[in-house]
Each structure stands twice: as structure tokens, then as C-alpha cells.
Amino acid sequence: MKPFDDACLEESPLHALLAPASIAVIGASNDPTKRGYKAMLGLIQGGYSGAVYPVNPKADTILGVRAWPDIKAVPKAPALALICTPAATVPALIEACGRRGVKGAIILASGFGETGAAGARLERDMLSRARAGGVRLIGPNTSGVFNLHYRFNLLALDHLRAGDIGVVSQSGNMLLSLALEAEHHGQVGFSTYVGPGNQSDLGFDDYLRYLGEDPHTRVATLYVEGFRDGRAFLDAARKVSAAKPVVVYKSGATAQGQQSASSHTGALAGSYPMTVDLLRQAGVNVVPYSDDILPVAEGLGQLQRSPGRRVAVIADGGGQATIAADRLAEAGLELATLTADCQARLSAALSAQASTVNPVDVAGATDAHPALLATCMAIVAADPGVDAVLLVGMFGGYARRFDESLADDEMRGAETMVELAGTAVKPVVVYSLYAPVKPPALTRLRTAGVPVYASIEKAVSVLAALSERGAYLDRPVPPALPPAVPGSRGQALVAGARAKGRSLLEPEAKALLAEHGIGVLDERLVRDADELADAARVFAGTPVAMKVVSPDIIHKSDAGGVALNLEGEAALAEAYAGILRSAREYDSHARIDGVLVTPMAPKGVEVIVGLMRDDTFGPVVMFGLGGVLVEVLEDVAFRAAPLSREDAAGMLEQLKARRVLDGVRGAPGVDKDALIDLLVSVSRLMEAYPDITELDLNPVIAYPDGYAVVDARILLATDEESAP
Amino acid sequence: MKPFDDACLEESPLHALLAPASIAVIGASNDPTKRGYKAMLGLIQGGYSGAVYPVNPKADTILGVRAWPDIKAVPKAPALALICTPAATVPALIEACGRRGVKGAIILASGFGETGAAGARLERDMLSRARAGGVRLIGPNTSGVFNLHYRFNLLALDHLRAGDIGVVSQSGNMLLSLALEAEHHGQVGFSTYVGPGNQSDLGFDDYLRYLGEDPHTRVATLYVEGFRDGRAFLDAARKVSAAKPVVVYKSGATAQGQQSASSHTGALAGSYPMTVDLLRQAGVNVVPYSDDILPVAEGLGQLQRSPGRRVAVIADGGGQATIAADRLAEAGLELATLTADCQARLSAALSAQASTVNPVDVAGATDAHPALLATCMAIVAADPGVDAVLLVGMFGGYARRFDESLADDEMRGAETMVELAGTAVKPVVVYSLYAPVKPPALTRLRTAGVPVYASIEKAVSVLAALSERGAYLDRPVPPALPPAVPGSRGQALVAGARAKGRSLLEPEAKALLAEHGIGVLDERLVRDADELADAARVFAGTPVAMKVVSPDIIHKSDAGGVALNLEGEAALAEAYAGILRSAREYDSHARIDGVLVTPMAPKGVEVIVGLMRDDTFGPVVMFGLGGVLVEVLEDVAFRAAPLSREDAAGMLEQLKARRVLDGVRGAPGVDKDALIDLLVSVSRLMEAYPDITELDLNPVIAYPDGYAVVDARILLATDEESAP
Q1: Where would you tag: which of A414, B18, B239, B265 has the fewest CB atoms within 10 A of its CB?
Q2: Which of A138, A182, A131, A130 is nearest to A159 (CA)?
């Protein structure tokens, strides 16, 4: 892990807010049902050492602390104001904070943008007064903040341990749930918590950068309903994930959930699969289930990464060994193949019945000597073909199950495991069915930073996260890219089309692509009989396709504007006339720029490539296989532009139907390098041409040698869209 | 639930073994590390009331109970013998048991079939002596047995509550894991447990039937590595699941897991997706994760079923409402649309901020009055559009989070929920983030049979299982089928082919199918110039396909034996000659029976239909979409033959790419009824023709009106295979 020191922490503008030297509680209260009471109680009970200034015009003291009638009256400008009063009062209070020199405020109240137009106006008013007064804002509609290493806790949550998991959660109940899970676990603790609320000023990207800098945080854990600025978050994630793990649970995975999410926070949930792909590209560990958040955060915080995907399983029961093998395979992990030497050493340590093929089943050999499990773990950890070790079974419960006298042996086993975990670069993870009972051997492991899970499924989720993170850190770091440069012809085409208030015509789009080295089929635009004769000569002997070219006809087939498999001048002439006739019948006002003639593309694997400008994430590339796979199964991959070659290769690998690219049913595989070139080139086009709003290459036919873009559509911004 | 009484229980041959009147413990021991000690301890500590006869030639007493030198010496024939001695001693002991009149034996030892050929011989020897002596066997290699309602516990597991979950588990650690989870839960209890071990005599089907009859069991829960007789298990499951829920976790979901499983028990794991489909067809709730076993068993045991898929969610936090909505959608459940009346009643009960659109978010209205949550649950439960109610959030924890004084209000809320659960036919399920803390209100719910989960994901798994079971129970019960009858032509074709020692040729297969009303393309077998001319005349004006017919050429395309899209007599003649030439070049010894001429099938949706004889499950029908979907994504459905129309319709619905059948990219939908007819007809062919071992219709082209079988392959048993 990258070393941090306090000097580094001081740099963050959030330091003053999340570890404040003093705090005013505006709306502090003696009424136990009020948040202004809870916050005061949290500060006092938590042992916060800075100055606390309760502000309440109607009270002399709050929980025994001298109160002040308003923020002006507070004797020294506090570093932070916690505002517990209703929404309508907030803008004026923020203005007063700015005048008093308060640099940051936390706003608990709801009733802002999430409730509709009037709330949104109130929120804008608050924000402009904050900007004018130099006050940074957490919230509004935040569940609060704590920083346990500074004994700063506005939530009055008890039973919290200070630890190394930093949390940012848009749901207060989720924080509460993680806190109770941690309490129940016993050894897991938190560093900083922030509820970002409406992210009016500060947002997920800011909080993530803070957690990246915070020396007490070893893993950043985020529950996200919506990003305020997705592109900024990806930038922050790339930066932070280079140094420490970033775990994200993104809610709104389904249309049903998205509907629920947007009624809740007013945040645009975006497409879930796209969000997941983009977060992973930026080094984030995305967890699909809320139950996985804490286990994965714990495991990543303690173990950081795995050098690879090959797991050795030590089990004291065949059934759970099989479950582990199933789950590992589903998670994309492998059962390591143990060397003969390793197996011989296991045989020597165990009985003849033991299975020394991974998953290793000790077959009763440990019943009277559970520490043998630790011996086996050390043996497999020394095998160069093993990247991680998973213990599965009843370790920690031998004393209870068999004989109390085994407790010492179990504790010796735990010590060996702790030692192993301390020296091996390979992660060591323990599943024990006795984990809920918390026997001493397991508590010893947890205290020493060896994660212990009560679920095989969770243990495997953690191993998968460690391996994913290891692969991310080991990827070749892409070279810095020079700025993307438009081509002179492309620039002229775009400028010309924009001047006419339209997008690029198909031949223009293809010309632009060709200028950037993207392989398009040879083609001729035909506007009269001479050009038709010319095209017939050029493509003689090859069947051709003909397509109408018109800025007014989007769905060419519907307009009768497409003819396929034509050969010979007569057939071309007939099709040419027919296409023009159909197009005019379809839309008599359509401007028709001609008919495009291209050779029919030979058969190959149909793929599609897209480039779009996402509202929150900016330019995003999409890749998928053509036809029913993309339409029905939505088997597509997304990456934020620009792409490295590694990113592009990952898109190909990610498809469920990726085997089609390798060739099935006797078909040859496609030229993946060429597709990677294509994706990388396409990914830079929005940067080179800021007017491009959408690009669709559909289909592209991929061949064993190269590919051909058969149809291309490039949409340009209208004047309104491209306003700076 | 179907009522059971003890009279009914008495019928099961397993009663004597699983609730024995007396027991001999052969190999009983005073050594605490031995299983013969554990078993004695379990019987004594558990309070078993029958006679116990320890058998040990070297001891006078075992744990204070008088011991006997051998089974002959035991004064009264015990109902059951528990055999704790090593494998090699077992066959002789079983024989002695038979002589002594013992009707059942439990064999703990491993070292039988699971270890190889020598062990398998020993197992066969043991079984034949058991059969000869009239002794039924549990095991060998069993983890043991308990029946808590009879205080009969051979496992010496403490902290077990008697309850209504019956368990059969091929993994002892899995039972231990469930027991610890139940102990930790506090309110969940078990009825009977059996470890089936190698299923030498009694197997999963027998144990499941017993649990079906056992009046103390409300849900049968099975951890299965392999079935001894899959077809018998399906029969038992169909019978038992009509009366009570059957929950199965099948291990070996992946190739990696299957490999591990077969090295463990020696059982054939079979194809996991097929097994899952067949179990579901028989009314089993299959749980995909081991973590789900106990929660789903608890929920199904208590609530049995849901009338539908429409769930109302009451939440006290928007974030967890969204998570619930996501998980419900992923599980195939719907958010119920609440009526205006229902929403008005919710509004009246809650504050203005509350969202009364499902998921209902109380938005703070319950902070001071948590019993309001129960009021809301009752309101939505009364909505006719709601099938089940899910509470999500911090119920049970209000007192701790806000104010101790809320404890009474929470308890009143719990009472309302209990009342609601008792009167509504709609299941009521609670997720609380305070569940791990076990506050009194949640304990009250659990005690009264309202399941409470510490995980939204688990709560949703339970709702999905309840809804799946409800749909199963509500399905139209298929009419009893008359025996399948072969056609006279089909019978002659099969007999003729068998006499020649070969399978059916393609035209024979199609003739057989046609006789059973299955739609095949018109065709002509061409063997000479006259027949060729005849075929050319019959199909004039239609492009045709030509395929070589030979019992020796399986891969017709590879042999150059296929020509497509032919029109006109000349083209047919040329193709005919070419096919014969290529086939002879491919295999000069191949018997060639002619060339099949069929019209080219018009374009449509390609599907495949298969029928195979599975080693353990018997005849199984497969259905999938053709092409890359089946090859790469394995998007197929399985059902045990014979199929009801409901079964067949379920196969179409189950495909991930099912939307293709409804028509995509402007294509029309297919005739699903015709496909269902096809599947039902095919499913009976193995019964009608016991010689058929495999049938492949690939492809079948489905149209908006009907379908056409384009290629058919029917394999027949060889003489060895069909030996009775």
C-alpha cells in the first residue's frame, strides 16, 4: 500500500469537514427525538476533543454545554457547522456561516431537490450562497458523518470500532446495517463515514479522493444510488484504486430498482451494466449483492490483492469442498493444480484416505489434531502454482465438536495460520461453520487480520475480489496518449454537415472513419447513369449492395431503400431506379443525395461497435456480437473512452458468447487484434471531433484477417447541444 | 398442508429405522474420540427412551450401560443396529444382525464403493447379506441419523431444537453447518436427519418419502451430491411436493465441482442444469447457494406458498427499498401495483413525505411510532393486487436506535404482524437490519412463525421460493396418460433396422415421426435416374436440398453429402452424381441407400428438440434455440418424459432467449402451440419404442403457423444395450 502521512491528509479540502477542529451544532436540542440532540450526544459520548458550540436561541445549555443564540454569537469561528434545522431555514444559515468564516457545513434536512421543483430552487439558492461565502457543503439530506479515529461521530451510533474501512453511503439504513453487521462480527471497524445525500456541492468523487488520502482507511466502500458527476468519479476511482481497494455497491440494477431509486434520491441511475463495466475499468471492485459489501470490504482491506486466480482448498469434509469448487468456478477462479512434490508432502502429513488432489480433503486425519489443517495450508501455500489458500470446514469448532482438549491444538493451528498469512504474499481466507459461535481460535485469526467467514459463498466472493484487484494492478499501464487529432477531410465533412444542420451521410461517415485507418468497404456514391455505369464496371464480378443516401431517411430498409446481392449492370440499373422510386414514395420531401454501391461483404462474424456520450460518464464505447445476441440477450460490453488496447481486449473477453469470436461450428476465429485496433480508434473520435454525439458501426463483419465496416452512422450535435 | 397422523407414519418401512423402539450400538466405546462413544453419548444425553444395547466384547459397561459381547447375546432383538466398526467387519455383522432378527442397520464406516474396486466388492457383499437377512441399510459412510421428536440422536449434536425441518444431507459438515446456523438463529428446529452416505440400500427417494409421511416434518430439505436412482427420486418428489415443500441443494454445479464431487462420494453427478430442470418439474424448490438452504427451508416450512408473484414492500429507508426492488426483479417477482384506495389509506396513515407507490417508503413517519409499519403491512395485504408482503428496514431496532420507550410500540407492531400473518393467506416476510441483535419484537415474530431475515437477499430468495411453489401447486394437473403406443410402420422400421444391426436412416426416422403426427418436410428418396426425374417433377419450382442416406455416414456435410438450394432437373442430376462421388471418396465401404430430396425449408426460427436416456433420470426431453445460442450459451431446457403440455410450455418460457420465439427484428412470432405439440409427441416416443436410445431433431424450423423437422436422427439400442 502506498504510504500516507498526515501531511498528505492535510492537503484534502475535506480534512476540515471530516476531521474538524471545532463544530457548531445549529439547531442543537435537548429533545431526545431530535437529530440536534442525537448529534450532540454523539459528539459527547464519542469523546470528541474539539470545541462544540450548540446553537439554539431558546436554550442556555444543550446536554450541559453552553449554547449560543446564533452562529454570529459563537466566540470563535468553528471549522464546521452541523445544520439540524428544516430545509427552509438553511440558505440563510449558510449565508450566516459564510459571514462568520465557517468553511464547511453539513446539512441534515431533506426537502430539497429530491422533492421536486420548489425544493430544487431552494437547493440552488443554498448552493449559490455557499459558493459566495466560501462554505463547502455535505448534503443536504445526508444521514451524517463520522470519523472514528478523531472521535468525531455525529450519528450517535454506539458499538462502533475504529478500523480501516471507510464508508460513503447514500442510504442511512445501509450504514446502520453495515454497523450492526460489524458489531456482530466483533473485529471489523470503520474509519470515516459520509452520507453524501443530494451531493449538492461535494459528491462521491470528492469523498472517494478523501478516503484515498486518509491514512486510516485501507479500503473505500461506497453504496451509490447515483453519481453527480460520473466522469469525475471514474477519474477519482482510477487514482485511488491504484493505491487501495475501492468497493462499490451500485443500486438500481434493474428497471424496477431504478424506478425506485430515482423516486428516492432524484439521481439519474443510468444503465447498470454500463456503470458496472466503467467502474471495473477504473479499478473498482463492484459487488452485486448488498450482503457482500462488508465481507468484501473486510477481505480487501486486510489482504489487498491476490497474485492470481489459482486457489488451493483445504477441506475437512468432501461436501463443502465441492461447494467451494462450484463457487470458485462460477466466480472465474481455478482450482490450482498441485505439484507432485506438494501432494507428496500433504500425503506425508495426512492419512492414506486423504485426497491430496485439490480440493484437498483431509478425510478425518485432523479429527484428533486440527492444527494439521494449518500445516496443510502452509504446504499448499509453498506450491508455486498456488495463488491463494482457502480453508473450508469446521476449524475453530473441533474442541466443541470432538473434545475440549483440542482447544489448545486449534489455537496452535491458528497461530500457524497467522504466521503464514503474515509471511505469504498469497491471501489466506478461512471459512468455518463455527464462525457464528466465535470460538477463540477464530477470534485469534480475525484479530490478526486473517478474515474468517461463516459462508463459503462470501469467502469465495472475497477471493474473487482479491484476484480481480490483483489482475487490475498487474495490467500493463497504458502509455499516456497524445491528444486526439481530427483528420483534415473529417473536419471538413463535419463542418460541412453542421453548416447544413444535419449529421453525416453514410459515405461521409465512412470517409471520416477511413481517414482514421478504420477499414470500410470500398464504395461508390451513384447519382446518375454515368456514375452507375462506372460503379458497375468497378465492381464487375462481385455481388453488390445498394443503399439510399439521404439525411431524411434513417430507416433505409423501411423506406425500400436497400437492395442486396446485385450482379451485372442491368440489375444495378433496375435496383437504382427502384430505390429512388421507393424512397420518394416513402417521403416525398426527403432530400436524396444518391445511392451507395458497395460490394457484398463476405460472410464472417457480425459485431457491432458504438460510441455514445453518456449524461454522467461522458464518451462511452460499446461492443457486442450482432444479431439476436445483442438484441435479446444484451450481451455487450462498455468502456469509458479513450480505450487502451487492454481495455479493448477486455471487452472482447467479457462477452458471454465470446467463443463465437474464437470460431464455432467449424468457423474460423476472427482477427481480434484488428477488432482491438478498431475499438481503440473509434474510442478517440469524440475527442477528435467534439461535435460527434453518437456513432454506430452496425454491422461490422469480422474475418480471420481484418474486418469490414458495412454500415456506419455518425450523429452530430445540433446547435443547441453543442453550446459550450 | 395435507394432514398426517401416526397411523400414516407407521406405514413407512423407515419408521423402525428412524424412530426405533430399541437399538444396539455395535462397537460402542468408552473412548471419547470414537464414534461408538459419541453415539452412546447422543442417545443418553438426548434422552432416548427406548432400550439401548451397547455391543463390545471387551467391556462390561459403556457409559454406565450394560454391554453385550455380540449381537447374538443381546437379550431382545433390537429394532435397529448402529454399526460403528471398520468397513471390513461390516458384512459379517450385517449377516449376524439378520440372524438375530434386526430389521435395520446404520453403517458409519467409510471404505466402501467410494474408495475403489475393492471397496465396491465389500459393499456388494454387505448388501447381498443384508438382502438375504432382511436387513435394511442406512449408509455406509453415513454421518448418522437423528429424530428429535423421538429424542433419538446418534450425532451427539447439542443445542438442537426439535422443529419441523427434515434434513437429508450427503455431507456431514453441511448438517453441522445448518445446525449451527439454526442454533445461532434461535427459533429454527429440526425433525429428522439422515446422512444417506453411499445409498447402498436406502437412498434419497426412500428418505424423501419418509419425510413426506412424517407428521413432524413441514419441509423436506436435501443436500445432494448424487442420486442413486434419479427417476425414483423424481417420483417421490412429485408425490411429496404435492403435500409439503421439498428443498434441494444439488452440489456439483460446475465441471470443477463435479470433479470434486465424484472423487468424494463416487456418485454420478450428471448434468447440473438438467438435474435442476427435472427437479423443478417435480415440484422441488432448488436453491442455488448453500447459504440459502436454511432460510428457504425456514420460510417454506412456515409459510408453505404464495398465491402469486406480486410483492408489496414496506420500507423505512429508500436505499433498502431499492435493493429489495432490484432483488425482487432479478428473482422474477413483481412490485405489486397498489390500488388508489390502498394508496389513500397509506397516505392517511403516514405523513405527506411518504411515498405510497410500491415500494412504500414511510419517510420518517415511523421514527416515533414503529407500529405504523405493521399498520401499513395490513393495508397493503388487504389490496387484492398484492400476493405477499415484505417489510424492509430497521423494525425491531427502533428502541435501540431512537429511544428505549419505543420498545412497547415495537412489540405492539409485532403483535399486529403476527395477527396479520395468522389471518392472511399472503405470506408476510420481514427483513430487519437488527435481526442479528435479536431484539424482543423480532423474537416474538420468529416464535410466532413469521420469518425474520438479516439479509434482503435471503428474504427475497424465500419470497421467490414461496411464489415458485404456489405456481407449482396451482398448475393444471395433467390428465393421466394412456400408455404410449407405437405405430405399425414405425414398429416395422425399428424392427427392420435392429435386424440389420443399425439405427434408423433419416427417411425412416422421418417416416416414424410422421406416423406420430410430427410435421416433417415432404421428401423423396432417390436411388436412380427415374426416381431423380420423379423428384424433380414433384418439387418443380421449389429449390430443394439433397442429402446422402447411409448408415455409415454420420457427418453428411463432412462427406460432401449435402447440396442445397438446387433448382431444375439438370442441377439435381449434377448434385446427385456429385454427392454419390463424394460419399464414395469419403468412405469407399459406406453402404449408400440413396439421396434424400426435400424442398428447402423457408426461413423461420431454428430450434432443436432432443430426447435422450439419462443414466439416472431415464428419458429426458431437451429443447433449445438453434445455432450459436445452443452451442455457445447452452440456452436449453430439460424435462423428464413424458411431458404434459404445461411442462412443454415451461420449456419455451424458460429459455433466456425466449423473446426470439415472440419475434424480434421485425420477424413474426412462432406457433408455440405447434412446438408444444411437437415436444409432447416426442416425449412419448421412448415409451412407445423402448429400442430408441436417442433422438435428435436438428434443426426444426418454427413458423408463425406450424413447424418443419428438417433433419432427424433416431438411434436404436444395440443388442447389448437392450438386454433386459
Answers
A1: B239
A2: A182
pTM of the full structure: 0.93
The answer to whether residues A229 and A273 touch, using CB atoms and an 8 Å cutoff, is: no
- Are B664 and A631 in contact (CB < 8 Å)? yes
**Residue A319 clears pLDDT 70, i.e. is over it:** yes
Contacts of A570 (CB under 8 A, 6+ apart): none
Nearest by CB to B171, from A256, A318, A363: name it.
A318
CA A693, CA A74: separation in Å to the nearest integer? 53
Identify the band that residue B351 occupies on the pLDDT scale cut at 50, 70 and 90.
Answer: confident
Q: Which of A262-276, A345-359, B229-243 has the lowest mean pLDDT?
A: A262-276
Tens-place pLDDT, residues B67-91? 999 999 999 999 999 999 999 999 9
User: Any chain A CB within 8 A of the CB of B667?
Assistant: no
Does residue B22 contact residue B53 with C-beta atoms inside 8 Å? yes
- The whole-number pLDDT of residue A411 equals 98
Q: What is the DSSP string of B30-86?
A: S-TTSHHHHHHHHHHHHT--SEEEEE-TT-SEETTEEPBSSGGGSSS--SEEEE-S-
Across chain A, what does the average pLDDT equal?
A: 92
The 10s digit of each residue's pLDDT in B531-555 is 999 999 999 989 999 999 998 888 8
User: What is the amino acid identity at position A423?
Assistant: T
> Which residue has cell 439530506?
A141
Rounded-to-integer distance, Cα A245 and Cα A217, Å:
10
Mode of pairing for the β-strands spanning B452-453 and B524-526 = unpaired
- For B124, residues 6+ apart whose C-beta sits below 8 A from its C-beta are none
Query: Strand, coil or helix: what is A122?
Result: helix
Which secondary-structure segment (H or E) carries B298? Answer: helix B293-303
Nearest by CB to B173, from A363, A394, A628: name it: A394
Structure confidence at residue B261 as a pLDDT band (50, 70, 90) = low
- All three cell numbers of B119, joined, read 471397496
| Residue at grid coordinates 454419390 | B580
**Residue B363, min C-alpha distance to chain A (Å):** 10
Provide, as residue numbers in chain B, all residues whose Cβ is less than 8 Å from the Cβ of A110: 353
Task: Give mean pLDDT, residues A230-249.
Answer: 97
CB contact (8 A) between residue B632 and residue A32: no
Residue A527 has pLDDT above 60, yes or no: yes
- Phi/psi of residue A637, nearest 5 degrees: -125, 145
Once rounded to an integer, what is the mean pLDDT over residues B553-569? 88
Could you tell me if B437 lies within 8 Å of chain A, comparing CB atoms?
yes
H or E, element range at B608: strand B605-614
Q: Which of A368-377, A448-457, B550-559 has the lowest mean pLDDT?
A: B550-559
ipTM summary value:
0.92
Q: What percent of chain A has pLDDT over 70?
A: 96
Interchain proximity B320–A659, CB inside 8 Å: no
Would you call B638 exposed, middle or buried from its count of C-beta atoms within 10 A (0-12, 13-18, 19+)? buried
Residues A261-300, buried b or exposed e (16+ Cβ, 10 A)? bbbbbbbbbbbbebbbbbbbbbbbbbbebbbbbbbbbbbb
Residue B721 banded pLDDT, cuts 50, 70, 90: low
The Cβ of residue A51 has, within 10 Å, a number of other Cβ atoms equal to 16
User: Is B418 within 8 Å of B378 (Cβ atoms)?
Assistant: no
Bond from prior residue into B482 cis (ω within 30 degrees of 0):
no
Domains of chain B, CATH where assigned: 6-138 (3.40.50.720), 150-301 (3.40.50.261), 305-474 (3.40.50.261), 522-600 (3.30.1490.20), 605-716 (3.30.470.20)
Mean pLDDT of the A650-656 span:
95
pLDDT score, position A392? 97
Q: Is A581 exposed, middle or buried (0-12, 13-18, 19+ CB in 10 A)?
A: exposed
